[in-house]
Amino acid sequence: MLIDTAQFVTRRLGQGERLPSDKTALVIIDMMRQFCDPRWLAGGDTDKESYLAGRIAAVVPSIRLALDAFRAAEALVAHVVNARWTHDARDVVPYQRGRDYGLFDEPRMAVIDALAPLPGEVIVRKVASSAFTGTGLDFILRNARIENVVLSGTWGSACVFYSLIQSRELGFANVWLEDGILYPSETSRHLFPALVGSSWAKLASAAEVVDAIGAVAPATER
């Protein structure tokens, strides 16, 4: 049973609203091969595997659409990957230690080919859920004079959401790439955008972000 989200008043990126390319970053979270494998994600549930396969097939092109626009605008792109440094996972937050995550830079923990980082794009390695926990992402964004963060990736009910909360607390203005975020269920896919848009970020489709990512802000505004 889906939750009725009609009661939520959500904020959206306004028509004609700009995201200056020198002040905006696209953060793509956990789009690694293992985390985009519907069979692995479903854990043996064939119905869930089928559902996730369909959702991944829809989400990846939307992220790629935004990614291409950021590349064309020479805006900052950060790819965030979740894995472990040590074989026994001693470096990982306790609640992730029993999970079947590989080591950083193993092929299964690399970003999928469709979204693979290019030279000049940031790669952030995390051992927790949020892209900001213990990673230096905040430091990098501030050095780059970023003010707006466009969030995408998997899961919208976990790692992307945790990253949003920290990003907001750190003072960034956030955009939730609503068609570029993977959720584990239809309930989450309906509930989280409504919650996020009501309080924590502006919602936008990939097409709307493409329209908004623009030229460098005038010097007087920087």
Write a concise synopsis of the structure shown.
This protein has 222 residues and is of the alpha/beta class.
Description:
The termini are far apart. This protein has a single domain, classed as Rossmann fold (3-Layer(aba) Sandwich). The strands form 2 sheets. The chain has a 6-stranded parallel beta sheet with strand order 4-3-2-5-6-7. Helices cover 32% and strands 19% of the residues. The protein has 222 residues and is α/β, with parallel strands linked by helices. It contains 6 helices and 8 strands.
Content of β-strand: 15-25%
Shape: globular
Terminal CA distance:
48 Å
The CATH H-level homologous superfamily: Isochorismatase-like
Number of DSSP E strands = 8
- How many domains would you count in the coordinates? 1
Helix content: 25-40%
Total number of helical segments? 6
Tell me the Rg in angstroms. Answer: 17 Å
**Strand line-up in the sheet with most strands:** 4-3-2-5-6-7
What is the H-and-E element order?
Answer: EEHHEEHEHEHEHE
Secondary structure class reads alpha/beta
Summed over residues and divided by their number, the pLDDT gives a mean of: 93
Are there runs of 5+ residues with pLDDT below 50, and where? none
At the first level of CATH, the class is Alpha Beta
Largest sheet: 6 strands, parallel
CATH fold annotation: Rossmann fold
What's the architecture, going by CATH? 3-Layer(aba) Sandwich
